[in-house]
Sequence to fold (123 residues):
Amino acid sequence: QGQLVESGGESVQAGGSLRLSCVPSKNIFRDYCMAWVRQRPGGEREEVAAIGTGGGTRFLDSVKGRFTISEDKSKNTVYLRMNELTADDTAMYYCAAKNSWCPTGGSLSFDYWGQGTQVTVSS
Fold:
């Protein structure tokens, strides 16, 4: 069984930056697609960013150019760096993982999910 633990969410001012961290179990980190998914108040879950087993990345259009997903294998950690935050970025952010390739066609069929970390941006 895999496990993911995310952290780093907090309240920040609009225009600020924040870095979220996700620590997965070793087997997941080595062989899984890793992603960040968020759920805004009253909204549905949406994939924010994902990094595939080969290192390729993809981003939600509204965060492209502002957010960066990366991994540090030496620390067994996946990060989501968020810059130029706006109130629209306020959401619960979840770390998610799927064996092998990332979900396609807009699917959120990940195998494992973290408990979530809250990000609140004030304007």
